[in-house]
């Protein structure tokens, strides 16, 4: 028995189902159920809430989310080897855990979820950043989810909360802070995982704002910001060359000096630039 439910401890689950961690799937498992329950608590009050979990693996965070009172967890997992372990959890929480086998980048979960909806995940960082950008850039706002509680490499977490003028400030900071409140909720050392990764990790919590902080089209803002930071050491007039033929005029219209570098441009200014580019 474990500390948070009457299911077997995760080490036993992994041994029973032969879930040796696969590097190709970014598998670093959390086996301490007190810790997974603590992460689940960072997601906010889960009672009466559906939770979308990406990459449940052997189910440590899934069990945390359910023990913290989630109405339902919809879990999307790419590794079929994990399904029997997840089925055991589904038996323990009848009607509350639905598992979909597949790649989260290819699956639209919405049909299986009822609002209010929160998202929680401990994912390989490349899949995590790709999903984060997708969650942040739907054409209309507010999104279907109230909050995202996501594990990242510490360095990626710092990029999400970074302020202008810092090295970590870039596309992830602008897109995240444009439409959400962001905070680092927890820091975790490599030893929290099995096997331990090379670097530290952190849980980032993003709360969707009712409306974006500043008006801008998500697609245009994404393009502008990606291009600006692609050559972050260059002045904006050079970095953004090719975006529109009259980029210097657009920068002036947005109140930004063409000799500024992307690192110095606030979220508000990037949104003004996206509007100026869209109206060009
Ligand atoms: N949530 C578990 C935990 O905290 O112990 C597992 C975390 S492990 C870092 C990442 C999990 O995501 C693995 O179970 C892996 O198989 C799964 N995964 C990797 N890529 C995925 C994808 N594209 N779609 C869905 N699941 C994926």
Description of the molecule:
With 280 residues, the protein is of the alpha/beta class. The protein folds into two domains: 10-208, Vaccinia Virus protein VP39 (Rossmann fold); 218-278, Helicase, Ruva Protein, domain 3. The protein contains eleven helices and nine strands. The protein has helices at 10-17, 33-42, 60-67, 83-92, 125-136, 154-161, 171-179, 218-230, 236-239, 247-253, 267-278, and strands at residues 29-30, 50-54, 72-77, 97-101, 117-122, 147-153, 180-188, 193-194, 201-208. The strands form two sheets. The protein has a seven-stranded mixed sheet, with helices on both faces. The chain has a two-stranded antiparallel sheet with strand order 1-8. Strand 5, helix 5 (125-136) and strand 6 (147-153) form a beta-alpha-beta unit. Helix 2 (33-42) packs across helix 3 (60-67) and helix 10 crosses helix 11. It is elongated and about 65 Å long. The mean pLDDT is 97. It binds S-adenosylmethionine. S-adenosylmethionine binds at residues 25-30, 54-57, 60-61, 76-79, 82, 103-105, 122-124, 127.
